[in-house]
Specification:
By secondary structure, the protein is an alpha+beta fold. It contains 8 helices and 8 strands; from the N terminus they run ααααββαββαββαβαβ. Helices cover 45% and strands 22% of the residues.
Length: 239
């Protein structure tokens, strides 16, 4: 299970190193979530999830407010959520989640990123069946036993709780995201090192050094695309 956390941690570190790009992507995601319902996180669960994720990436309040104001006002951008699946070097599997207001732009760009960096696009369902949608929370200042007691007291069903790199990691079904969050909130915990809805591979593969270089280029190329929000893969990342 630990390697799952390593992949999430590495992904977050990569985003932290590209803050302006990350902030722009969160701006779109917050706007879209707010347009789906009320622009109030207390009555819009999708928005609440996005805002919790944004907090762990230190997205500035000004960017959040701008996206919410746009959703409340005359913003009429029509975004679609699209998922692409494909393969990278050495049979690696990749999922690309996008938010786009121009489908005719997004699909060719994603395909080009795959083709130019040693990968190939797959058909819908060719990869996703090997991944599991998961809610993940990471926090410090608590032990595994303490966190387990918090979840039991709140009657929250989680998949696993473990300690990794001086943090406690909670894995749960995606529909338990809010239940986990509220359980922590009741005991005064509202700061997380990670709070994500992510896709975790059922099995991870190792990547040889020569393939790793090409694989990193492919992931970078995909994440650099304007419409790409998240990229998930099944390559085991070393400490």
């Amino acid at each position: 299970m630990g390697r799952k956390w390593n992949n999430i941690k590495d992904k977050k570190a990569s985003k932290d190193a590209n803050t302006s790009r990350v902030y722009a992507k969160f701006g779109v995601e917050i706007y879209v979530a707010a347009k789906k319902g009320e622009p109030d996180p207390e009555s819009n669960r999708a928005l609440k999830v996005v805002l919790e994720r944004a907090k762990t990436y230190n997205v500035p309040r000004a960017i959040i407010d701008r996206a919410l104001d746009k959703a409340k006002g005359s913003g009429d951008d029509n975004y679609q959520e699209l998922r692409y699946e494909g393969f990278g070097p050495n049979g690696s599997m990749i999922i690309v989640d996008t938010l786009t207001n121009n489908v005719n732009r997004t699909a060719p760009e994603v395909r080009s990123a795959f083709n130019k960096n040693g990968g190939s696009m797959g058909v819908s369902g060719s990869v996703a069946y090997m991944f599991e949608s998961t809610a993940v929370f990471g926090l410090t200042g608590k032990t595994v036993d303490e966190v387990m007691e918090i979840m039991i007291e709140a009657d929250v069903d989680v998949r696993d709780i473990l300690e990794e790199d001086e943090a406690v990691i909670v894995y749960a079904a995606p529909d338990q995201f809010h239940a986990v969050q509220e359980a922590f909130k009741k005991v005064g915990v509202d700061q997380f090192t990670v709070a994500e809805l992510t896709m975790l591979a059922q099995n991870y593969i190792s990547m040889p050094a020569d393939g790793q270089v090409q694989f990193d280029k492919l992931i970078d190329a995909l994440e650099d695309l304007e419409d790409v929000q998240q990229v998930f893969h099944n390559v085991e990342l070393e400490d």
